[in-house]
Every structure is written in structure tokens, then in C-alpha cells.
TrEMBL record:
This is Zf-FLZ domain-containing protein. PROSITE patterns: ZF_FLZ. It comes from the Eukaryota. The lineage of its organism: Eukaryota, Viridiplantae, Streptophyta, Embryophyta, Tracheophyta. Residues 81-90 have a biased composition (Polar residues).
Amino acid sequence: MSYDALFYAGSEEPHFLEACTLCSKPLGHNSDIFMYRGNTPFCSQECRQEQIECDEARERRWKKMSSKKSTTETSKKSATVQTGTLVASN
């Protein structure tokens, strides 16, 4: 495969399989490419695993923050609830 084949037709941007997403190491034309989430290439299992671990940690933080936000909103709503008896006369 020629270097020119790594570019999209009519585009100046390099093809997404040109370099490892994590370390930017050029991907060899006759070497294994380790894919993650469809179209994210990596040069090795180690680079791919590092990205997976980063994504999982980010997801755990997001869920933790969402959980805290939900709990805070629920406690704020319950704190503003007023109860009592209303007596009306004619």
C-alpha cells in the first residue's frame, strides 16, 4: 500500500489507520492493528488496554458524579416540601 493510499480522496487529512490513537506510533503496513470501539486503531494490545482502562475510569467518575447530583437534587426537593393542615371557612 502506498503512502498516498493512506489519505482520503481529495482530503489533506491522514487516514485514521495511519497512527496509534494513544501513542501516535505509525502503524506498519504489514503489522497487526488493534481496534477498539469500531474505528479507533492502536499499535499494540497494551495501548488499546490503556485506552480501555481510561474510558472505564472516566465512565465510573461520570456515574459517580451523576449519582451524587441526583441525590443532591432529591434532597433539595424534599427539603422544600411543606406539610400541614389548611383550614378554609366560608
